[in-house]
Design brief:
Elements: E1 2-3, H1 14-20, H2 37-57, E2 64-67, H3 70-85, E3 91-95, H4 100-111, E4 115-119, H5 129-135, E5 140-144, H6 158-168, E6 171-173, H7 187-190, E7 194-198, E8 209-213, H8 242-278, E9 283-285, E10 296-301, H9 308-313, E11 317-318, H10 334-339, H11 343-347, E12 349-353, H12 360-379
Parallel strand pairs: 1-11, 3-4, 3-5, 5-6
Antiparallel strand pairs: 2-8, 7-8, 9-10, 10-12
Helix pairs in contact: 1-8, 2-8, 3-4, 8-12
The structure holds pyridoxal-5'-phosphate.
């Protein structure tokens, strides 16, 4: 079985697991227990993890709040910001191709009186600059645009969006879950005020993530979702998941150290994969040719029964059609639909998302297999 579904989740790096293990066994203290060494050891480990995540994003450790993952961070940020800033305005700008976590929370805020603009994208997956400029009004409190899309890998012009938001005096949130570890993400240089991320997309454990919230120029204020004890500066109560947080910290440290290696490696083998697949009859790329994550390629194969290719691959190659969250439903990907990809091509799209351990040999095996399957599906 060849795993090419790293945008859905990654394995835990051996060094991450090794860092976590003592916090399950003998270093089992509660990070909030200030009266003894067990607590201090746990609190020190959490502090180091916070520093490591802050280092990855070029922010201060006290700007990092630990959560259970990106979905929780997104809920906390969007709902919390809307609650605090709705006296200033009720308008939020986002994009039709955001992750479902963002879109579903925005819908829920609409039921609470928010006005949400969903910007369209072009066939390459990028927003139109004029659309964004027009969408921001004096009523706008937040612009929420992801850095890199999970289905297509398309990268939005985050630095320019950050500058525009600053000029217009609105908060800028960017879902960086797919970008961290793959691209440099410097929240200062990019002008990001709010950023959710998740450990399991960058070789860390599932069920732990973080939310970056700018403290100065501007200071982001929000109301908590989970109350009870005032952990994490009152933003997210509950006993800290110390082993998970240690794992997130280590995965952030490795992501920082290995970023260049990751980029060069995945880009090299992705180019081999993409070139071979796009040479097949009726194959087309979904997404931007260059403004894209190094590890992701989303390709449609025309002229075959919908879902046929994915089903045939499922025993040998782990890939995904659209995002994992929607692939249980027999609906074409909403991301590809928003890009204007025709239905019959959207149904036959496959996302290949590579990881740092994939090899050229695996990639050649996959291309040969896809080619054979396409031939038999088209003939039979
Ligand atoms: C995976 C993902 C999420 C959700 O992260 P979880 O930690 O699994 O909740 C949010 N946004 C993007 C872009 C993602 O890829």
């Amino acid at each position: 079985m060849i795993y090419l579904d790293h945008n859905a989740t990654t394995p835990v790096d051996a060094l991450v697991l090794e860092a976590m293990l003592p916090y399950f066994t003998h270093k089992y203290g509660n990070a909030a227990s200030t009266a003894h060494r067990f607590g201090w050891v746990a609190a020190d480990a959490v502090a180091l993890a916070r520093e490591r995540v802050a280092m990855l994003l070029n922010c201060e450790p006290n700007e990092i709040t630990f959560t259970s993952g990106a979905t929780e961070s997104i809920n906390l940020a969007l709902k919390g910001v809307f609650e605090v800033y709705q006296t200033k305005g009720k308008h939020i700008v986002t994009v039709a191709t955001e992750h479902k976590a963002v879109l579903d929370v925005c819908e829920s805020l609409e039921r609470r009186g928010a006005q949400v603009t969903y910007l369209p994208v072009d066939l390459t997956g990028l927003i139109d600059w004029a659309d964004l400029e027009k969408a921001i009004t004096p009523e706008t409190i937040l612009v929420c645009i992801m850095m890199a899309n999970n289905e297509t890998g398309v990268i939005q012009p985050i630095e320019a969006i950050g500058r525009l938001c600053k000029e217009r005096g609105v908060l800028f949130m960017s879902d960086i879950t797919q970008a961290v570890g793959k691209l440099p993400v410097d929240v200062q240089a990019l002008g990001i005020d709010i950023a959710p991320l998740s450990a399991h997309k960058m070789y860390g454990p599932k069920g732990v993530g973080a939310l970056y919230l700018r403290r100065r120029g501007p200071r982001v204020k929000l109301t908590p979702m989970i109350e009870g004890g005032g952990h994490e500066n009152g933003l997210r109560s509950g006993t800290l998941n110390v082993p998970g947080i240690v794992g997130l910290g280590m995965s952030a440290e490795l992501a920082h150290q290995q970023q260049n290696m990751y980029y060069n490696r995945t880009l090299r083998i992705r180019q081999i994969l993409e070139k071979a697949l796009l040479a097949l009859p009726q194959a087309s790329l979904n997404g931007h040719p260059t403004q894209r994550l190094p590890n992701t390629t989303n390709i449609s194969f025309g002229g075959i029964r919908s879902g046929g290719l994915l089903k045939s691959l499922s025993n040998t190659v782990a890939v995904s059609s659209g995002s994992a969250c929607t692939s249980a439903l027999m609906e074409p990907s909403y991301v590809l639909k928003a890009m204007g990809v025709p239905d019959e091509l959207a149904y036959n799209s496959i996302r290949f998302s590579l990881g740092k351990d994939n090899t050229e040999v695996e990639i050649i095996e996959v291309t040969t297999l896809v080619q054979q399957l396409l031939e038999s599906l088209r003939n039979g």
